[in-house]
Amino acid sequence: MFDYVPSPGFLKNRVILVTGAGDGIGKAAAKSFASYGATVILLGRTIKKLEAVYDEIEQAGYPQAAIYPMNLEGASPTDYENLANTLETEFKQLDGLLHNAAILGNLTPLEHYNIEMWYKVMQVNLNAPFLLTKACLSLLKTAANASIIFTSSPLGRKGKAYWGAYSVSKFATEGMMQILADELETNTKIRVNAINPGNCRTAMRMAAYPGEDQTKSTLPKNIMPLYLYLIGPDSHKINGQTLNAQG
Ligand SMILES: NC(=O)c1ccc[n+]([C@@H]2O[C@H](COP(=O)([O-])OP(=O)(O)OC[C@H]3O[C@@H](n4cnc5c(N)ncnc54)[C@H](OP(=O)(O)O)[C@@H]3O)[C@@H](O)[C@H]2O)c1
Questions:
Q1: What distance in angstroms lies between residue 5's CA and the mean position of ligand 1's atoms?
Q2: Dist. CA 45–CA 73, nearest whole Å
């Protein structure tokens, strides 16, 4: 699946929502899904970045995308319900949901962790995917074959000093993914998995490792085979797994 090459147009007529679609891995995923025929909903907080991705998709001749500006930090449960209702009204379907947006927070000992920052990281990295999934589930259940992908990290499997709320949010993300996968395994056609992207050259990586030689990190577009595999129908038997995008 790391060298997965889907057939052209294999995501045609599918509607896929990507969070954090304006930059980094989310941007690469949105463009990649669109290049295989998906209609992509670009959710993020910086409209300029979302517009740039929208334009790239349009200029490439892929299906027209849609922009849904939303700051996950301040969004209320009602905002998520409104989003799900808008998707139902405008698109009548939702076939894929990629939870990608996240923030790093502080790299500091727990003893000194800023409490406000702790809440922010949990809100964006954990509560937002919970609320978004909850709001979108009834629409996802109507799809013939739907895929929910969470985004994890090695720090969600092994705690390391100073990674604080980010690491805790990724541990919880893996737990949420497994619970949801188990709950939806019977009586729905929704599968739920997580991707560990590995070391990727993005703004987040640079913030976490400012002294690192960036050329040693792979570009987000190079890890797209796993994203394509898990979002599309070929992975219909995979459920409850965390897979590494770089092997
Ligand atoms: N890069 C790596 O090496 C690596 C490794 C392991 C896991 N990951 C995971 O991969 C995912 C993507 O990371 P990345 O490296 O691509 O990070 P990134 O370049 O920082 O991109 C994160 C995206 O999330 C959006 N976002 C952040 N806060 C938001 C909010 N409050 N509301 C809406 N959108 C928000 C950002 O929007 P703005 O552009 O507007 O800020 C941005 O588009 C994350 O879940 C991260 O934890 C990355």
A1: 25
A2: 9
Domain formed by 15-244, architecture: 3-Layer(aba) Sandwich (3.40)
Residue 41 has pLDDT above 80, yes or no: yes
Tell whether the model's pLDDT for residue 1 goes beyond 80.
Answer: no
Catalytic residues: 166
Å from CA of 47 to ligand 1 middle: 15
Per-residue pLDDT tens for 83-92? 999 999 999 9
Q: How far apart are the first and last CA of the chain?
A: 9
Beta-carbon count within 10 A of 219 CB: 12
Residues 1, 12: Cα–Cα separation, whole Å: 20
- pLDDT at position 23: 98
Beta bridge partner(s), residue 54: none
Domain ranges of the chain: 15-244
Q: Measured in angstroms, how far is the CA atom of residue 148 from the centroid of ligand 1?
A: 17
Residue 72 CA: nearest ligand 1 atom is: 32
pTM of the model: 0.98
Q: Collapsing DSSP states into helix, strand and coil, what is residue 194?
A: strand
Mutate to test the pocket of ligand 1, among 202, 215, 216 (most ligand atoms within 8 A of CB): 202
CA–CA separation, 63 and 194 (whole Å): 26
